[in-house]
Amino acid sequence: MSKQYDADYFQRWYRDPALKDQAIGGAARLARKVALAVTTAEYHLERPLRSVLDIGCGEGPWRAPLLKLRPRAQYLGFDASQYATARFGRSRNLHLASFGDFQYLRPCAPVDLLICSDVMHYLDTRELDRGLPGLAELCGGVAFLETFTREDGIEGDTEGFKRRPARFYRERFAAHGFTALGSHLWLGPALRGGTAALETAD
């Protein structure tokens, strides 16, 4: 039986009271990630954030803290969960699509901030390789590509986790024009070459 991203899944991993702020969706932890991603994008764009694309968005937990910081930003999310997109699609601007669909899917102009958080380490290599070119084309600024590897101490949802080495992702991201900034942040291809030597992690 394939993994189901249904209501029970999100309740367990994002809202279980026993996990408190250590849950995947802990409010304080998420707020720090959002603030980091927003300020990093704005630093490199040298202007306020205008557009955000969240691939593998789940129930869209990034949306509220993003709009709290930047109320005028446009947020668009995609996820393969039929539950999440049916339940929150209209209110949070979420749409149904798998990561691999971004081989062809271009739902918007390149965005200031592209998010793909806690997704890629669950994907088969074939689907990962299909979707990555789309992410590169859709990132007009900075990408937050939160991805974990076999070198990391993984806790929580390990079902379907692909224990790949960090170099697997580094090589693929670089091949599509992403430049490492650190802390899961990557400069998109559109801004490549516009940084000082010590601003990047390469």
From TrEMBL:
Keyword Nuclease attached: no
Molecular function via GO: methyltransferase activity
GO biological process: methylation
Pfam families per record: Methyltransf_12
Residue intervals of the Methyltransferase type domain: 53-138
InterPro entries with a match to the protein in the record: Methyltransf_12, SAM-dependent_MTases_sf
EC number: 2.1.-.-
Membrane-spanning segments: none
UniProtKB keywords: Methyltransferase, Transferase
Presence of keyword Transferase: yes
Name under which the protein is recorded: Class I SAM-dependent methyltransferase
Native species: Lysobacter firmicutimachus
Lineage: Bacteria, Pseudomonadati, Pseudomonadota, Gammaproteobacteria, Lysobacterales
